[in-house]
Design brief:
There is one protein chain. It is built from 6 helices and 16 strands. It is an alpha+beta fold. It has an 8-stranded mixed β-barrel with strand order 1-4-3-2-6-7-8-5. Strands 10-11-12-9-13-16-15-14 form an 8-stranded mixed sheet. Strand 2 and strand 3 form a beta hairpin. The longest helix is centred in the first third of the chain and has 13 residues. The mean pLDDT is 95.
Length: 280
């Protein structure tokens, strides 16, 4: 069914400023800069081995521009969308319908970069009963391909380690992501220290980390932060410090055999962790 976290969407005010900041953070340049003419948006994409990371800004009028402007007006810049990848949207749509959810038809999308290249895909937008407060849809790419960045240094970001989602309904989250989307639940743990649960879903070497604290409010999930895997955290830390980023010192992570540091500036309101997995 779902075979990957395809990409994360970040809503930004100024695409050039955001592109500059994330180019420095990642130690890599975008592999795609272009626009969605029918949506009224411009985008810049960074590609990694397990995901791509899309900066999205409004330009003109359209549903996409309305989405970005509304997001920034109400919540500021930041993580705005989670897109899951699949090979057979028709089968997933049938399964969703068979489980009693309502869902629309599969639709087509396309984008054009600044060199005239075209990428095309199919979308399946999720109803609120499945998206649960997160702008989310399923995607199958049908034409065109993103290249991988060249000449990366050992201080560059390698891949997304995990994306963090907050929820007040962990059992409902498991129902959707585990039973409907068939994403493997690798960990379900109660954390007595802060009185909640931690869920880890894993797909395509990417973890969806869910921090769950029940309350009596309306069921809602929200994107919170991200952690990026690096080869040499000391080198990455030194490079970013020289680029003017604010960072915490490198320290041992909660997970055994890891080193971590938090990036405190120029992340456009996204809590951002860098992590190095040490050889055992």
């Amino acid at each position: 069914m779902i075979n990957k976290v395809d990409h994360l969407i970040v809503a930004v005010k100024d695409i050039e400023e955001a592109e500059n900041n994330f180019s420095k953070l990642f130690g890599a340049v975008p592999v795609w800069t272009g626009e969605h003419p029918e949506l009224g948006t411009v985008n810049s994409i960074f590609n990694f081995s397990n995901i791509y990371f899309e900066l999205l800004a409004s330009k003109g009028e359209g549903a996409g521009a309305d989405f970005v402007n509304d997001r920034i007006s109400n919540q500021g810049e930041g993580l705005a969308g989670l897109v899951l990848g699949a090979d057979r949207l028709d089968l997933i749509r049938k399964k969703i319908l068979d489980k009693g959810y309502r869902i629309g038809e599969i639709s087509d999308g396309y984008a054009r970069d600044n060199n005239g290249n075209i990428r095309k895909w199919q979308n399946l937008f999720l109803p609120t009963s499945l998206s649960r407060g997160i702008f989310s849809f399923l995607i199958k790419h049908t034409e065109g391909k993103l290249i991988m960045p060249n000449n990366l240094k050992n201080s560059s970001v390698k891949k997304l380690d995990h994306v963090v989602i907050n929820t007040n309904d962990p059992d409902g989250f498991i129902e959707v992501y585990g039973n409907v989307f068939d994403i493997r639940l690798a960990l379900d743990q109660t954390v007595e220290k802060w009185g909640g649960r931690m869920l880890f879903f894993r797909v395509n070497k990417t973890t969806i980390e869910v921090i769950a604290k029940k309350d009596e409010g309306e069921v809602k999930d929200s994107l919170w932060g991200m952690a990026w895997d690096v080869e040499n955290l000391e080198a990455t830390h030194k490079r970013l410090d020289e680029e003017g980023f604010e960072l915490t010192e490198v320290k041992e992570g909660r997970k055994p055999n890891t080193l971590v540091a938090t990036v405190k500036s120029k992340t456009h309101n996204i809590p951002t962790l860098l992590i190095q997995h040490l050889a055992v």
